[in-house]
Design goal:
Chain lengths: 175, 102
């Protein structure tokens, strides 16, 4: 009864509900700490979707980096700045109606495109199925990352260095 | 409804992108605007991984790694700016920061 397709569908809808409900609660809660906690739920749903698509390395990166790193940074900053005052004030700004109208318009466009079905975005031919190699996802990813994308990888490391220096300069009281 | 195709993943990613956009455009709290940007970047990553899986090509997952790197850099710098802003203006509401407006 429980074919692989059916169980995959069940897990997909489970994670999709997790992602979307978490995201909606993130942008509607008054208290920023609650928002951060619901963002964690949403990010965990995304991590589950990676696992569902056999992207195990990205699953680990999502848990370690997003949920472990970025969210701690967010919670730390929320504790650091005084948000009690902001929580008492109006949560949405004056242009919310226009913003919502624009987003609904863009959303209608995207879903009209998607309603044409799977064939509408067959823009490239799928590559050959990799012959069931002994290498796991992480090894294959490392091969691509360090052979084809070595220069972008190094540039990304410089970007992170710039970000570290920049955030220290921003947050320091007096240089 | 099932089996799950690439279209399902793209529809989910589009919905997440739109929710994130609503958050960026309508919220006043800068911390939550930054969180909405994280949601948008995650929507991009879902798309990249879905296409990577559909085309049997790992380049999409490599790009997802670069997107995550950018998200980390953006969060670090954005929160640094937020701390500097809070020190100088005592506010975290985006529409109260109007020094360049007249």
């Amino acid at each position: 009864m429980l074919t692989p397709e059916l169980s995959q569908a069940i897990f997909f809808y489970l994670f999709a509900i997790m992602v979307l409900v978490g995201a909606i609660l993130t942008i509607t809660r008054r208290n920023a700490v609650h928002s951060a906690l619901f963002l964690i739920v949403s990010l965990m749903g995304v991590a589950g979707l990676y696992l569902l698509q056999q992207a195990e390395f990205l699953f680990a990166v999502q848990i370690v980096l997003y949920i472990g790193g970025i969210m701690v940074l967010f919670l730390f900053v929320i504790m650091l700045v005084n948000l009690d005052q902001a929580a008492k004030e109006k949560q949405f700004n004056g242009q919310w109606a226009i913003a919502l109208a624009c987003v609904v318009l863009v959303g209608a466009q995207i879903f009209w495109f998607l309603s044409k079905g799977d064939a509408a975005f067959k823009i490239a031919q799928p590559g050959l199925l990799p012959a069931a190699s002994a290498l796991g996802n992480t090894e294959q990813l490392a091969d691509v990352l360090f052979k084809d994308y070595l220069l972008p990888f190094e540039i990304a490391s410089i970007l992170l260095l710039v970000a570290v220096v920049g955030s220290v300069v921003m947050a320091k009281k007096r240089i | 409804m099932y089996p799950i195709t690439t279209a399902h993943y793209i529809a989910l990613s589009a919905a997440l992108l739109l929710i994130g956009t609503v958050g960026v455009l309508t919220r006043r709290n800068i911390v939550i605007i930054l969180m909405s940007i994280e949601l948008i970047l995650n929507a991009v990553n879902i798309n990249l991984v879905a296409f990577s899986q559909a085309l049997h090509n790992l380049n999409g997952q490599v790009f997802a790694i670069f997107v995550i790197t950018d998200a980390v850099a953006e969060a670090a710098v954005g929160l640094g700016i937020l701390i500097a802003l809070f020190r100088n203006k005592e506010t975290v509401l985006a529409d109260e920061v109007d020094l360049l407006k007249w």
